[in-house]
């Protein structure tokens, strides 16, 4: 058994990586139990896309989903007054942005979640796995007494024939 040191902001603790006794190999992704893979963002993005039945033909792809409290707001974002939740899923990462009453939180996930610019709503520590992003959206709607209609979501993607599956997933958030 080998030992690795995992660092966090609060402490340093040993993490055991178990080797297969018969093979002598470490897990192919190299993820310690309870740890974070260096491929967390791309793996979550790929799993999300495959669960929607999508298979990209290009190595770089994207999906952007915008839930806007004001359906007439359009694509431009006025951070001073807009209330919007945006999900971005790319081949190499995923993230979300929440804007409400002049405050913005923009979180991205590559190997770990991190703040991209601002986190006025303190959402970094609340960042769920991509598959559970709907839970965060429901919590924000409740906390801020807002509604982010799924039926009027703006969806942008470079993936051919993917919009209907993405819209179906969005409706269930």
Structure description:
Helices cover 19% and strands 30% of the residues. The protein has 173 residues and is of the alpha+beta class. It folds into two domains: 1-35, no CATH class; 40-171, no CATH class. The strands form two sheets. The chain has a six-stranded antiparallel sheet with strand order 7-6-5-4-3-8, with helices on one face. Strands 1-2 form a two-stranded antiparallel sheet. A hairpin with a 2-residue loop joins strand 4 and strand 5 (93-100). The protein is globular, with a radius of gyration of 18 Å.
What would a concise description of this structure say?
This protein is α+β, with helices and mostly antiparallel strands. It contains three helices and eight strands, in the order E-E-H-E-E-E-E-E-H-E-H. The longest helix has 12 residues.
Total of DSSP H or I helical runs spanning 4+ residues: 3
Please identify the structural class as seen in this structure: alpha+beta
Helicity range of the residues? 10-25%
What is the number of E strands? 8
The CA-CA distance between the termini, in Å, is 42 Å
Helix-strand topology string:
EEHEEEEEHEH
Draw up the topology in text.
Layout (H helix, E strand, L loop, with lengths): L1 E6 L4 E6 L22 H12 L10 E7 L15 E7 L2 E8 L2 E7 L3 E7 L13 H12 L9 E4 L5 H9 L2
Antiparallel strand pairs: 1-2, 3-4, 3-8, 4-5, 5-6, 6-7
């Amino acid at each position: 058994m080998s030992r690795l040191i995992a660092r966090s902001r609060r402490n340093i603790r040993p993490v055991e990586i178990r080797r297969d006794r018969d093979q002598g190999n470490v897990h192919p992704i190299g993820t310690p139990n309870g740890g974070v893979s260096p491929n967390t963002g791309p793996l979550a993005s790929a799993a999300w896309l495959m669960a929607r039945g999508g298979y990209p033909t290009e190595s770089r792809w994207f999906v952007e989903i915008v839930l806007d409290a004001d359906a007439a707001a359009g694509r431009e974002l006025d951070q001073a007054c807009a209330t919007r939740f945006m999900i971005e899923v790319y081949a190499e990462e995923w993230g979300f942005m929440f804007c409400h009453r002049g405050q913005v939180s923009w979180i991205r996930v590559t190997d770990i979640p991190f703040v991209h610019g601002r986190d006025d709503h303190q959402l970094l520590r609340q960042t769920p796995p991509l598959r559970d992003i709907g839970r965060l959206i429901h919590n924000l709607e409740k906390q801020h007494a807002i509604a982010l209609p799924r039926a009027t979501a703006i969806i942008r993607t470079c993936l051919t024939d993917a919009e209907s599956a993405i819209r179906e997933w969005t409706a269930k958030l």
